[in-house]
Amino acid sequence: MNPTKGGWAILLTLVVALILAVVHLPEWWPQWLGWLRPNWIAMTVFFWVLAVPHRFGLVAAWLLGVVVDVLYAEPLGLNGAVLAVLTYITWSLYERLRMFSALQQSIILFFLLLLGEFVRMLGLMLLLEREAQFGFLTIALASALLWPVLRFTLERVQRGCSVV
Amino acid sequence: MKALFLRQSGAGYLLTSLLVASLALMYTELSSSMLAGLRGSLATALSPVYFLAELPWQSSRYVGDTFSTRDQLQDRALLLERRVLELSQASQQYLTVREENARLRALLGSRERLGRDVLVAEVVGVLPGADRHQLIIDKGHADGIRNALAVIDEHGMVGQIVETARSSARVLLISDVSHALPVQAVRTNLRGIVSGTGRLDVMELDYVPDSADIREGDVLVSSGLAGRFPGGYPVGVVSAVTTGQGQAFAQIQVRPSAQLDRSRHVLVLFAEPDLPEPEAQEQDTQGQDIQGSSP
């Protein structure tokens, strides 16, 4: 990533996404909100790949995934593979996806994350012998619902820091 | 147009090689511990992320403490005073009982059990998601923490260390689905295995026969049989027993003794330094325990 032309803004949003991914909510918030935790990292990657596809590549997505593995204590390489595949699919469709409205992008994002989270769950079941959960559904749903808000915010960031 | 096509075909190769790299990483990590160092140093670099992620929760506690009313504070002070009284009484009893125990052990010819070294650690992070029960504490291998050490709080067993970084470590809670530990009931010495259910307030006592003498309110302590956990620390209290459904084993629910979702400080128990083979030794002392308690 090139630090000029707003590369630091991309990095900063990714760091914020990492923090949001493990944020510990205040104690009076209900426990079940844990099931509705959106995948902030994949959403942020989705945004930057759509907005500046030449700035955010597969290797960056994969390395970010290794960081996520450490953060979540999951097998090294699992999230890297998932994020790289999501980046690849988004990348190959970005010219069409860019023209979509926020709602249409939400639907695409829902199915992308459904795939990604499902693969991740399968990996965890195989490697760590976790039990099957419906988390992949709720995470994809929460992410799709929050996408318009995140897109609006990140567009502001992109314009403010003139990321091109 | 041509450039676009070229770039995309190149990306396909790149994606394939990244996926192969992922598989290689996963395989290496499963089959050896070569990557533990890499994971540890990355975790060390990432500790500020956990610190920032913990701020909303910490500040909500701080706000709660600061803006509590006078009545609430008085109530709490009263409660704490009463608790101090109870505890000081218990500790006096404990002193005499400990001396007596040491004397009896000396009579029996068994080695006196050493007090364990402990290290106080602060909880600096929790893993997100309702289905994952892990904590992050602020002491790591720089403080001598290793994998598989037991972690307790002031009420009982919390979990065990599963990953260490330089100045932080990850604790797997006893309530995690993948966790199980050997226990015994204080009242009857009945042995069993408590396994997590993925809920913070309920665990299960497995492999206890339908006809066994166990009832609500029985206190379970760690038995030390597997060699990983030290014996004698409270694990939980039996909260419900369901028997007689034509099954070989009773369904027993256990409420954890430790405050798994709100303890702020925990104690890491170091293994006894002069025990080369913890498993054999633990079983040995266990055998002595049973001999000692039978009349």
Architecture overview:
The complex is a heterodimer of chains A (164) and B (295). Chain A is mostly helical. Helices cover 70% and strands 0% of the residues of chain A. Chain A has helices spanning 7-21, 40-51, 58-72, 78-97, 102-128, 135-160. The mean pLDDT of chain A is 89. In chain B, the strands form 2 sheets. Chain B has a 6-stranded antiparallel barrel with strand order 1-2-5-4-3-12. In chain B, strands 6-7-8-11-10-9 form a 6-stranded antiparallel beta barrel. In chain B, β3 and β4 (157-164) form a beta hairpin. The interface between A and B is large, with 45 and 47 residues.
Q: Tell me the span between the first and last alpha carbons of chain B.
A: 90 Å
Give the overall shape of chain B, derived from the CA principal axes: globular
Oligomer state equals heterodimer
Number of separate strands of chain A: 0
- Average pLDDT of chain B works out at 80
Percent of residues in beta strands of chain A: under 5%
Summarize the main sheet of chain A.
Answer: none
Strand arrangement within the widest β-sheet of chain B reads 1-2-5-4-3-12
What does the radius of gyration of chain B come to? 24 Å
What's the β-strand tally of chain B?
A: 12
User: Which bin fits the share of residues in helices of chain A?
Assistant: over 70%
Spans of chain A of at least 5 consecutive residues whose pLDDT stays below 50 are: none
- Please work out how many helical segments of chain B DSSP would assign: 4
